[in-house]
Amino acid sequence: MTTISIFALAGGFAENKDIAREIRLKSILPALEKRDMVTLDFAGVTSTTQSFVHALISDVIRKYGSDVLERIEFKGCGENVREIISIVADYMQHAD
Description:
Number of strands: 5
Strand order of the largest sheet: 1-3-5
Number of domains: 1
Low-confidence stretches: none
Distance between the termini: 30 Å
Number of helices: 4
Structural class: alpha/beta
């Protein structure tokens, strides 16, 4: 299991797409390639942008398909953060 603290890397307002991209490339994708489960821990993050979440998970879903979401846990999410994650995940599952 790989746990990634979004707060530690992006702060209380996760908005920087470059940080999200770095998390995806250096942590999420390598863990998934090793068939690891990934926990994205949003504890302490009060808000995020749709573009941050899109940069964080859209290419992961594109590469592995929507089934990859069964291997990713979104933990410590407040209502606002969870809603944005849902919007991005739903969009990517229906995009084509």
